[in-house]
Every structure is written in structure tokens, then in C-alpha cells.
Amino acid sequence: MAGPGAFPTPWLVVYGYGDLSYRLAQRAADQLRASGATTWLTTIQEVAPATLPRFRGAVLVLPTSASAASNRRTNAARARFTELAAALAPCATHVLHVGAPADLAPFPEYRALRPRVRAVHHVPRSTAPALDVLRLLVDSENRAHDERSAALWAHAREWGVTTTKQVEALLAAVAERRARYEERRFHQARRPHPDYDLNRLDLLLDHPDAAPPRRPWMSAVEHGRVLDGYTESGARVTRDTMRLMRAACPTFARPTDRTGKKGAQSDLRDIHRTLTALSRLQEDAPTPT
Fold first, then answer.
1. What pTM was estimated for this model as a whole?
2. pLDDT band at residue 288 under the 50/70/90 scheme
């Protein structure tokens, strides 16, 4: 059985019409709770949209009822499941479907589910009552973790970063620079935006679309000068931060095809996001069963 570290809590389990759908959802909820994950179990009709942001993961069990009397309700549920998957986009969302992949092909609502969820698991009806849901989820999370990790490391290697020790050293260098720009001697970089209580490096990394607004008393020319100064300040903190990062990791460097001034700020932001994601992956790696 997986430990609680395998599943960031809480989780949501939602089921559609049909006794088998309910039993499979109940099994999923029981196994998640046994692993240490706080879990809510509810029907597709009763799920509360306002509660969705709190969840870190979800299991959506599609309807299994095939009776003629339930067709109208099932048709409505398909649209609800699609809407729910979209609302749960930030979560690790898994769909359980009792049947073969071809069973879902005729329904555009179910086809729309696939790009919005972590995985769609097709379960044979004969094995559904005894399904090891936890094993299914852990295996899927491990595969997703491995694929995500491979993509992130590929980007990091383009910058000369090959070890977790280098990742942590580079992130520490950025954190040091963020703190340094809080010193009052950095007049231009300390608080360059009137609407944010943040320094220029914080804004560059965390709020890239923030630009100083044009105040009522400013002419277009004056506002243009403010924007130019903001851009130049971003360029300076980028150069300073990359210099500190190279000191922390001598192999760290922009890819050879991106050595000019153009794009340096967005490049720093992109590699910082990659390094941060790699650090979090180490912390959130799924626990083997």
C-alpha cells in the first residue's frame, strides 16, 4: 500500500450513474483513505464547484448504467464530467471507465476529456469489482513523474545543469539575489512598479506581464520612458542574476544559439521555472507501493 506521500491531499472521487460506477468509486475512495489521503466521495450531480480549488487530485468514475431509463440522465452526466475535468485542470485527475476505449468514441464529451486529465483508465467489467485502484493511480503517477522529469532535465542540460546539487545551488543563488534587491541601495530595482510591493527580479520571474501603467498625468512620451527604464532594469537584474548563478554553477550558461541580449529575460524566467519544477519533483516523487 502506498504511503501518504504518494498522494498530495485532499482528493475528490466523483461517480456517475450505475451500481458498478458507485462500487468502483467507493473502492477508490476507501483505498485512497487507507493510503493516508483525505478523500471526498460524491455524485456527479452533487459535486460543489466552489470546493474544487482545494483538491490536489481527483478520480472521475464514468457512468456504468446502460438501461434505457437512465439514458437521459447519462447524457446530461457526460457534459458534467467534461466541465468538471476542465475545472480540475490543475489537479492530477484520473478517469475510470468500465469498458473498452471504443465505447467512448461516439461521444464528443468524453473525447474532450482526454487532454484535460492525467489519464483515462479503461477497466474490463469482469475485473472492476476487485480493481486495485491505488496501484493503477501510483503506476500512472510514476509514469507522469518520469515523463515530466525527463522533459525538465532535457531543458536543464541545455543550460549545463546535470545534477540535483547544481539545481539547488542555482535556486539558492536566485533566492540570494531576490533578497539582495530588497536592500534600499538598489533604488531602481527595489520597487520599480507602483502596483506591486516586489523588487524587479521578483516581478521578472513571477509577474512577467506586469508593466508600469500610464498614470493620468503622464504623456505618451513620458510613459514610454518609464517602460524603457523598466525594461532596462530587467536587463540589469538578469545579467546580475545570471552572473551569480554562474558563480554557483560554473557549467551554467545560456544555450549556444541564444547568447545575444534578445530574449535573455524570458530565458532566465524559463530556466528558473524548470529548476523550480525539478526541485519540486524531487520533493513530490510518488511513493512506490
1. 0.57
2. very low
